[in-house]
């Protein structure tokens, strides 16, 4: 088979990643399907290029026999065909889909690495039994935590602090203790805590008394000069530390606190820095997936090394798992010099990037070919489609279908269709991907038992066959 010469036109941000993917495609193919050359035309984001811009900037196509453009490139491609004399076509929307585009199996991005440690705080540790503390620690570890932080409470005795530290250490956990009481911090350090939160220039002396790594904070809110003094104290004594400029909630200094982190990193490019993300995830009535995505984008750009995360409010129940997903996605995107798109759906809870695989016309064509009585359910931008050999229905309300399905005497089948149609309606409303017999994807949120659903459907179909005999 003759090898085809292809020209890939792209932008600055995607050039290296595109070359990497194309090299992997060639390496995974026993017989290379094509030879290629990449032409980067000086646009930062490939999706923003147009045929007119390409025609203006692309001077040489070499020996290429076909031109491949980013899938999101808008405009009339015939202009390029006329100018260069070769076919021009759009590739997939995301270059990560190029293996599928060329008929190969898709390559899942490597999200095994990250550069941020998650400190997961048990905020009510003094009120919990040792067994409850251990159970909470195991839960946070399963969600991605690297360090378990025991939060002490003001004017609340933590009589089993030493026992809690030693219990967690015996189970292989790294432990930090968060307190404003010097006596508790000293006790924690002597009991084997790995980190102490949070020391100021007034309590920095504690760092010299114990082996634990101190987390340094300003002596007063916003007083970054005092944080600098604590940092210098540790640097001159070669004492390992982590500095935290303190992230403030919205309308209580958020913008200024981000500036402090920027200044801190610029002044000390090589130190370890922590950011406490709970002041945004816990104190903002918004889905925490998006908040974590934005925060970890900042964390990635500022090379922040650790976060203190909490999971207290019911709406932040998965905040630690989201932090784990966000740190991996941002790390990979940074390594690839790409936008953080197309790496994972774990932070896409409410919506999907590509919700509708088929349009109305395509589904109508599929429906026209069905010759059996089994119902198919699909979703397009137009609404929910239900069809079998008896006909094709389209609506946005599941109740509108019932009178036409003919399942009044089949409770099991009616139940199954009700569940699926309800799920399809949600997918249409939220612009999510719907696949019949599959759960809707909710990112890091837990899924239900697929086996129970499968068993119910099988029972429904068996009952229907029995009635038809």
Which key phrases capture this entry?
eight-stranded parallel sheet, TIM Barrel, Rossmann fold, 3 domains, 469 residues, alpha/beta, four-stranded parallel sheet, 15 strands, single chain
Strand content: 15-25%
| CATH fold name of the largest domain | TIM Barrel
> Low-confidence parts, pLDDT < 50 over ≥5 residues?
447-451
Identify the overall geometry. Answer: globular
Give the mean pLDDT.
90
From the N-terminal CA to the C-terminal CA, the straight-line distance is 54 Å
CATH H level, superfamily name of the largest domain: Dihydropteroate synthase-like
Question: How many DSSP H or I helices?
Answer: 16
Explain what you see:
With 469 residues, the chain is of the alpha/beta class. It has 3 domains: 4-101, Rossmann fold, CATH 3.40.50; 117-336, Alpha-Beta Barrel (TIM Barrel), CATH 3.20.20; 360-468, no CATH class. 38% of the residues lie in helices and 15% in strands. It is built from 16 helices and 15 strands. It has helices at residues 15-28, 51-57, 78-84, 98-101, 130-143, 161-170, 182-190, 224-236, 254-267, 278-281, 288-301, 319-336, 360-367, 402-405, 411-430, 450-468, and strands at residues 4-10, 34-40, 66-69, 88-90, 117-122, 147-151, 174-178, 195-199, 213-216, 242-243, 274-276, 306-309, 376-380, 383-388, 391-395. The strands form 3 sheets. The protein has an 8-stranded parallel β-sheet. Strands 2-1-3-4 form a 4-stranded parallel β-sheet. Strand 7 (174-178), helix 7 and strand 8 (195-199) form a beta-alpha-beta unit. Helix 5 crosses helix 6 (161-170) and helix 15 crosses helix 16 (450-468). The longest helix has 20 residues, at 411-430. The chain is globular and about 75 Å long. Mean pLDDT is 90; it is low at 447-451.
């Amino acid at each position: 088979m003759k090898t085809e010469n292809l020209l890939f036109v792209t932008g600055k941000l995607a050039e290296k990643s595109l070359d990497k993917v194309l090299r992997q495609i060639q390496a995974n193919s026993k017989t290379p399907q094509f030879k290629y050359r990449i032409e980067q035309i000086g646009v930062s984001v490939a999706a923003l290029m147009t045929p007119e811009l390409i025609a203006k900037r692309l001077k040489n196509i070499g020996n290429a026999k076909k031109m491949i453009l980013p899938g999101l490139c808008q405009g009339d491609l015939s202009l390029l065909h006329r100018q260069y004399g070769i076919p021009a076509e759009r590739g997939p929307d995301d270059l990560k889909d190029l293996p599928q585009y060329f008929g190969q199996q898709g390559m899942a991005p490597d999200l095994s690495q990250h550069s941020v440690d998650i400190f997961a705080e048990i905020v009510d540790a003094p009120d919990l039994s040792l067994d409850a503390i251990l159970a909470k620690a195991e839960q946070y570890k399963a969600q991605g935590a690297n360090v378990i932080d025991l939060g002490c409470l003001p004017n609340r005795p933590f009589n089993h602090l030493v026992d809690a530290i030693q219990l967690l250490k015996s189970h292989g956990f790294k432990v930090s203790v968060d307190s404003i009481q010097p006596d508790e911090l000293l006790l924690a350090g002597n009991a084997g805590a790995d980190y102490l939160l949070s020391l100021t220039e007034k309590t920095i002396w504690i760092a010299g008394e114990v082996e634990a790594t101190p987390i340094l904070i300003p002596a007063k809110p916003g007083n970054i000069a005092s944080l600098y003094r604590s940092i210098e104290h540790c640097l001159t004594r070669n004492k390992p530390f982590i500095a935290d400029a303190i992230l403030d909630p919205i309308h209580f200094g958020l913008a200024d606190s981000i500036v402090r982190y920027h200044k801190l990193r610029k002044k000390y490019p090589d130190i370890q820095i922590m950011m406490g993300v709970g002041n945004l995830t816990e104190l903002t009535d918004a889905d925490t997936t998006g908040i974590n995505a934005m925060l970890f984008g900042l964390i990635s750009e500022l090379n922040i090394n650790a976060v203190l995360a909490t999971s207290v409010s019911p709406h932040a129940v998965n905040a630690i798992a989201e932090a784990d997903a966000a740190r991996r996605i941002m790390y990979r995107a940074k390594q690839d010099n790409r936008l953080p798109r197309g790496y994972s759906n774990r932070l896409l809870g409410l919506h999907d990037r590509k919700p509708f695989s088929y349009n109305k016309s395509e589904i109508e064509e599929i429906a026209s070919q069905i010759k059996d009585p089994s119902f198919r359910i699909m979703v397009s931008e137009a609404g929910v489609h239900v069809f079998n050999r008896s006909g094709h229905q389209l609506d946005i309300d599941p109740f509108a279908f019932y009178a036409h399905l003919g399942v009044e005497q089949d409770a099991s089948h009616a139940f199954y269709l009700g569940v699926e149609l309800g799920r399809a309606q949600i997918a249409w409303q939220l612009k999510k991907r719907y696949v019949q017999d599959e759960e809707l994807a909710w990112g890091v949120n837990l899924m239900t038992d697929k086996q129970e659903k499968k068993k119910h459907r099988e029972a429904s179909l068996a009952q229907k066959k029995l009635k038809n005999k």
